[in-house]
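Please, structure for the following, as tokens.
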Amino acid sequence: MSHFSRLFFVFFLFSLTLHGQIELPAFFGDNMVMQQNETVSIWGKDSPLSAIKISSSWGEKTSAVADLEGFWFSKIKTKKGSFDTHTLKIEGSNTITLTNILIGEVWFCSGQSNMEMTLAGLRKSKVLNAQKYIDIANNKTIRLFNTPRTASVLPSNDVNAQWQESNKDSAKKFSAIGYIFAVELYEKLNVPIGIIEASWGGTLIESWIPKKDLLKYKGINFFDKLPKEENKQKKPSFLYNGMIHPFQNYTVKGVLWYQGESNRTQPNSYKDYMKDLIDAWRRQWKDNSLPFYFVQIAPFDYTKKKNGTSIRPNLIREAQSQITQEIKNTGVVVTTDAGDCNDIHPSKKEIVAKRLSNLALAEQYRFKNLFIKSSEFKSFKIKNDEIILKFKFFNNDEFISSENVKGFSIAGADKVFYPANIEFHKNGKLVILSSKKVRKPLAVRYGFEACFESNLETKSGLPISVFRTDQWQL
């Protein structure tokens, strides 16, 4: 580099220093909640090579130096959660002081319309018992961050939103599942709760997965510019880029996910996509065991919709149940008792949120004696003209013998399924199926109907998932 070039470069940096300003992503702001007892990440932008000093009101300090493009990154330790408010001062080309910060538990929730659906409801669909939560919503120690709908061709680094204290207005406009989950954690843990929501109704799972994780699939068309039509939210990777990537390393305790309805017409790849999404998000947050709890799509009569079938939505549910058995630190909320055959946005969000919170409380906060997992089909054997089903139970759960149980059907070699007669073994653990129309049964299906709503009772009150024992072509 010539002497003139060096002088010009120094002058360039000096000019930037004079005019530079610290820039922080929107989620580093007043009213934020930081994850307790962690070394959390913080980052931003300033003039190139600026020295950054970060100091907290709880006594921790850290520093960083901006690179040649002005980006800087650091980490700072947090303390045990409490209701004390804190400040965080960031000094560089200028000084920014973030105020009214709380330290507690932070969760991230995402998905499509059933996660996005607010306490106020969605169009004609209402949330059961919503008013109960709106009435208690004036709580400054629950904080909400509502990410706006944003599609992007390339990974973004920021979003246009801000942390809000919970009140009747902010709660009413927030995800019903996310908010009720926050209330449940707040009441049980007695620490501040922060919930980040990033959802968009009517979206495919491919929209929420990074491009590099989708390149291995055939038939996916990628776009290098935002389309003008309204369905830009359905384009591969666009929502990951605009609504997930910006959070990068923002420390969260775990993720809640409710999506799958839009993938119902092509369910065969859903399980692989879901595995890719979990892996990609854990990679982004640099946590290979980041808790990931998701909701099984609820009962609805999809035959009423265009290209609707009774089978394909159940393949999504089947995949969702299988994922939690194959990937560690995941869990699924079964919803065969929490749907509405006439409304794709069922009202029973409270049930879903409480089951999610029980998963989190038991697995992440070591609460005991909670029923958190639905019983799972394990194996079957054929004895004469009967099929005997064996299940895997959790926490001493069992079936409660009841009459007119719906959903079980059996088939023989002709592959025609008939409703089964049901007998519960006296131990509450086995189910015995038979039908006069099936002399030599070979296979069982449970819940594989256009809209199946479970009435099978269990000690835990949790329903079981739809399942099948066959792999016959559907």
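DSSP finds ten helices and 21 strands in the chain. The two ends are 69 Å apart (CA to CA).
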